[in-house]
Structure formats: C-alpha cells, structure tokens
Amino acid sequence: MNYEELMNEAIEASKNSYSPYSHFAVGACVLTSDGKKYKGCNFENASFGLSICAERNAIGSAIADGAREIRAISIYSPNMQDCLPCGACRQVIAEFSGENEVQIITKADEGIKIRTLDELLPGCFRL
Questions:
Q1: Which sequence positions are flagged as catalytic?
Q2: Quick one: DSSP state of residue 66?
Q3: For every one of its 127 residues, what pLDDT tens digit does the chain have, with 9 covering 90 and above?
Q4: Residue 102: which CATH number?
Q5: What is the Cα 90 distance to its own chain's centre?
Q6: CA atoms within 13 A on the CB side of 37
Q7: Would residue 127 count as lying in a domain?
Q8: Residue 67 belongs to some domain of the structure
C-alpha cells in the first residue's frame, strides 16, 4: 500500500470541499479490499446537521460502486495537522471494515501518521 499516494488523493479531494460556514476543508481517500480508490470531500449545508464529512462521502462513493470492505482511509485538511475522523465517521469506517484492520492515514509536520481503527475506536459496535 502506498501511503503517500493515498494522502495525495486526499489532498486533491480537499480542494473540492464546500465549506462556506466552517471554512474547514477536508479530503479523504478510501482504499477498498479490491484495491480501488475512492475520494470524497466534506460539504456543508446551512442546516448544519445535513453536512457530510469527507470520510463518509468517500465511503459512500465506494458503496455506490459495489464495494463493501475498506482497508485504509487517508484524511487531510489544510486547516489542521493530523486531522482525525469524527466519532460518526469512525463508526461508519467500522461498519465497512469487514475482517480488515483498517488503517487511518493522516499527515503532520513529521510526515505520514498511521493508526488502526481499533486504536481510535476500541470496542466499536459491530453486528
């Protein structure tokens, strides 16, 4: 798995963010079990509860293409170092992790950081 390539895809996706309210752009790139990549960015709405995170947007694109298991997700924001997924996104990642140990990839001044979903969401809810 090429972490730098996944991060570059997230960086590109962040440029398409629609974040006129928070001004907090985020991009994500999901790598599925079959090796395909899907990008997403956050998009906001004046009714804030209708806003969608970049991670869920990317996962939704993968699902729409028939994917059901993800192996990794890169997340990037030009507004913040080491931009981690919110709790809702962590649970959605868990839903589509299958038997995989999903890797969460972020970027900080010291370079690429890699964590597992289990580190970020220990004891997550799964059926």
A1: 55
A2: T
A3: 799 999 999 999 999 999 999 999 999 999 999 999 999 999 999 999 999 999 999 999 999 999 999 999 999 999 999 999 999 999 999 999 988 789 999 999 999 999 999 999 998 877 7
A4: 3.40.140.10
A5: 9
A6: 15
A7: no
A8: yes
